[in-house]
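Following up on my earlier message about flavin mononucleotide. Here are the inputs again, as you asked, copied directly from the submission form:
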Amino acid sequence: MSSVEVNYLNLKLKNPIIVASSGLTKSADKVKACEDAGAGAVVLKSLFEEVLARKNIKDTYELYDHPEVYEYLNANMGLVYGSSEYCRVIEDSKKATSIPVIASINCISANWWYEYAKQIEDSGADAIELNIFSTATSRLQTSDEMERMYFEILANVKSKVKIPVAVKIGKYFSSLPNFVSNLEINGANGVVMFNRFTEPDIDIDTFTFKPAFSMSTKEEMYLPLRWIAIVHRQVKLSLAASTGVKTYEDVIKLVLAGASAVQIASVIYTEGLPVIRKMLDGIDNWMKNHQIENLSDLKGSLSFVETSKGVANHYLRAQFIEKISDIE
Ligand SMILES: Cc1cc2nc3c(=O)[nH]c(=O)nc-3n(C[C@H](O)[C@H](O)[C@H](O)COP(=O)(O)O)c2cc1C
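Thanks, got it. Here's what our run produced:
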């Protein structure tokens, strides 16, 4: 019997497929549907800063500093969680299911919501995912300052709760291995690579702004693949891949690169929840064909560290240049 059980954030998952934070996980009923569809865990829809949620966000300047806020609130304008309502979703989800339920907090500042972290833990969440995003908009802001904000938020949360804490990050960092290592030093139990933010767009007829939103494409999976492979073994924390994961092959590739788990949203929006079972069946068949008993034994076997011993490394740019030079 092949096993697809994995360990993510010190939690035992029956399989590595997590339904990512989104409208798909905004209520206990939806979480139950994810479990019934085979998901190994869920990350609840993010709890947003209430103050921001109450504003007329379309007109606020800060909105454009934080495009993901615009997107997520727009995608779900009716859903404005208060902290007690959010805690109820956690409690109800825990009652309705037996898979790990990871709460998610959207953090854009280092101060407003620390009180809630404990309430979230007390409500029975198995872990917290901090969905942190901040954009540098001034030439005076240094990378160091920007990164320090993440560490402050994380260290503060860690001082309030005992449950594992993951940080979901965006893809723009100068030295990702160093940054992830510092997240670990500041207490992170896991890092999710990467959040997928709405990009800004401009309407050239009305001279106004609009969010550019689309579901992810399969090509986007190569970015988490590369960075998970590079970071794996340089840190001990769990790595989860998010963005562009569509098929069972993607899951296997990401595990080989070093991921403990994957998070999916777009593919469920486009194909429906049955896609989870399809992916699990695909993994199972593949494991049988390759006579692999435990999926977790494969974790990181094709990571950067594993494959950089004396051989040309496939995760680096040189390889890319070699490849495209064949294309006339
Ligand atoms: C409609 C929608 C709502 C989302 N809401 C959230 C959210 O509240 N918090 C969060 O961290 N990510 C949110 N995300 C991002 C997803 O969790 C995921 O990281 C991203 O979509 C990339 O994965 P995918 O390629 O499988 O879609 C949302 C995504 C979508 C499509």
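One observation from looking it over: The pocket of flavin mononucleotide is lined by residues 20-23, 45-46, 72, 75, 104, 106, 131, 168, 195-196, 216, 242-245, 263-267 (CB under 6 Å). Hope that helps, and feel free to reply on this thread.
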